[in-house]
Amino acid sequence: MKVNGTPTRTIWLAEDGHTVEIIDQTRLPHHYEIARLASLDDACRAIKDMLVRGAPLIGATAAHGLALAMRQDASDDGLATAYDRLFATRPTAVNLRWALDDMRQRLAPLPADQRAGAALDRARVICDEDVALNEAIGNHGLTVFRTLWERKGKPDRFNVLTHCNAGWLATVDWGTALAPIYKAHDAGIPVHVWVDETRPRNQGASLTAWELNQHGVPHTVIVDNAGGHFMQHGMVDVCIVGTDRTTATGDVCNKIGTYLKALAAKDNGVPFYVALPSPTIDWTVKDGVAEIPIEDRGPGEVCRLWGRLDSGDTGWVTVTPEGSPAANPAFDVTPARLVTGLITERGVCSASAEGLAGLFPDRSAAAE
Question: Which residues are annotated as a binding site for substrate?
Answer without folding.
Answer: 53-55, 90, 203, 254-255
